[in-house]
């Protein structure tokens, strides 16, 4: 029997829950069953019917207000006026593909590259993070001459054929590519190692050796520098350097999947990988890039990209279209104008301290960790034993939903709350979050 996917099934509505729903919600879930494929999932036993968003807040069909602690798609905040205005203005003038000349994509690329290390000097554009990571894998294979890709054991990198093959978080119903290898994530809470960086580098080194022993040539390592699907594992700054050196010595390409940790979210740096003082060969961008407008990108070293781009023509019909580029430019400008990277650092540090305060009264809060506005809140049966408590985490989600706080879980055991609000989240919202967690844990006897 297939195990459940931690990102799709651990916090999802089940048909057995339908009887407890109000008639209107039950009718909507029935309509979904009738017209959408069975792969789709809804959050919560009582799904939330949302109709409006603004900043860090959402409202349902009955006018109830929620605090969004999960959505990094509208990374600046829901319906940010700068993005709305930019999209509206450009849509009134032109929207077409990249086979025609247009300044917007070039101006945006200049601005984007200015935020990255100088070694990363070429960009390409798509519509989704899955497409960006798919292309990154193709580039890594072309550059290295290899096939095998290493990913972390609970990683999520997309839903295309190539990316789903390195996305174990999709569950055992989705096979891992035969040429891929999975390595344990560097979990400072559970790994007893004097040097976490050396520990992780050893796992990468062993995976490369295993590939070669089975006749698979190594192509590269793809990683999300905060290991968000593995349970939000920021780790000590700099610890990824040794693993990057191992990859390069083996002739491989390092792909930094910045879909989740990028665009100032971790606070300490604009890009998640910069916390570690590394320069990847390829960087992929997605969800937060357009604040809800479908746009994604790939940035790479020219010499690494050349092995692919000098040989294979690439065209993504609407990747890099003027409307999406206008949205992306509005996002970059707003992050600077509103000081959102610094905001993420300061408000995130305050939230982290307040959340850690719950450990004094709730023994089941095993660990609270994070960087900027990206926080993992781990639930355990007891702090001494550190045994993951998935059932408590799922029950806690439902309690939080009833108190107007929306989030979900991550990690191989589904026991880590992933707290990743829009960057509009304020220090004043911390009371709502911490109070709801305290009340919910108390209600659950935890």
Task: Describe the 3D structure.
- The chain is of the alpha/beta class and 446 residues long.
- The chain has 12 helices and 15 strands.
- The longest helix has 18 residues.
Per DSSP E runs of 2 or more residues, the count of β-strands stands at: 15
| The CATH architecture of the largest domain | 3-Layer(aba) Sandwich
Mean pLDDT: 95
Number of domains: 2
| Uncertain segments | none
Q: Can you tell me the CATH topology of the largest domain?
A: Aspartate Aminotransferase, domain 2
Q: What profile does the largest beta sheet have? A: 7 strands, mixed
| CATH hierarchy class name of the largest domain | Alpha Beta
- The span between the termini is 31 Å
Proportion of helical residues? 25-40%
Shape: globular
Write a brief caption for the model.
The chain has 446 residues and is an alpha/beta fold.
How are the elements arranged and paired?
Layout: H1 23-35, E1 50-54, E2 57-60, E3 65-68, H2 81-93, H3 103-113, E4 120-126, H4 129-144, E5 148-152, H5 161-164, E6 181-183, H6 196-213, E7 218-223, H7 241-249, E8 253-257, E9 282-285, E10 296-301, H8 302-309, H9 322-337, H10 340-356, E11 365-370, E12 375-379, H11 390-402, E13 405-406, E14 408-410, E15 416-419, H12 427-443
Parallel strand pairs: 3-13, 5-6, 5-7, 7-8, 8-9
Antiparallel strand pairs: 1-2, 2-3, 4-10, 9-10, 11-12, 12-15, 14-15
């Amino acid at each position: 029997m297939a195990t459940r996917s931690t990102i799709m099934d651990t916090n999802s509505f089940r048909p057995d829950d339908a009887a407890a729903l109000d008639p209107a919600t039950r009718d909507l879930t029935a309509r979904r069953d009738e017209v959408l494929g069975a792969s789709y999932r809804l959050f919560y036993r009582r799904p939330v019917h949302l109709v409006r968003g603004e900043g860090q807040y959402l409202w349902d069909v009955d006018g109830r207000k929620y605090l969004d602690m999960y959505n990094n798609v509208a990374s600046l905040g829901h319906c940010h006026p700068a993005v709305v205005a930019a999209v509206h203005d450009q849509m009134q003038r032109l929207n077409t593909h990249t086979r025609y000349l247009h300044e917007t994509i070039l101006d945006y690329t200049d601005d984007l590259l200015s935020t990255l290390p100088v070694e990363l000097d070429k960009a390409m554009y798509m519509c989704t993070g899955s497409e960006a990571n798919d292309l990154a894998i193709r580039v890594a294979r072309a550059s290295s001459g290899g096939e095998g890709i290493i990913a972390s054991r609970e990683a999520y990198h997309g839903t295309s054929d190539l990316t789903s093959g390195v996305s174990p978080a999709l569950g055992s119903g989705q096979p891992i590519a035969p040429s891929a290898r999975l390595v344990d994530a560097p979990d400072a809470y559970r790994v007893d190692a004097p040097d976490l960086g050396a520990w992780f580098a050893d796992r990468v080194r062993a995976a490369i050796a295993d590939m070669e022993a089975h006749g698979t040539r190594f192509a590269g390592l793809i990683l999300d520098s905060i290991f968000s699907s593995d349970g939000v594992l920021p780790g000590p700054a700099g610890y990824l350097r040794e693993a990057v050196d191992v990859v390069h010595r083996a002739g491989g390409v390092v792909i930094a999947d910045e879909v989740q940790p990028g665009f100032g979210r971790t606070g300490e740096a604009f890009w998640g990988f910069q916390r570690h003082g590394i320069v990847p060969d390829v960087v992929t961008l997605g969800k937060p890039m357009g604040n809800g407008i479908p746009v994604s990108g790939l940035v790479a070293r020219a010499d690494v990209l050349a092995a692919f781009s000098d040989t294979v023509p690439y065209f993504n019909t609407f990747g890099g279209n003027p409307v999406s580029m206008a949205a992306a430019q509005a996002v970059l400008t707003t992050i600077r104008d509103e000081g959102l990277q610094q905001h993420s650092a300061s408000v995130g540090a305050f939230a982290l301290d307040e959340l850690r305060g719950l450990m004094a009264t709730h023994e089941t809060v095993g660990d609270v960790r994070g960087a900027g506005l990206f926080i993992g809140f781990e639930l355990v049966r007891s702090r001494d034993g550190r045994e993951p408590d998935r059932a408590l985490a799922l029950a806690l989600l439902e309690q939080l939903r009833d108190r107007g706080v929306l989030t979900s879980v991550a990690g191989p055991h589904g026991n880590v709350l992933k707290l990743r609000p829009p960057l509009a989240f304020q220090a004043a919202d911390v009371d709502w979050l911490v109070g709801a967690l305290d009340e919910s844990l108390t209600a659950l006897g935890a």
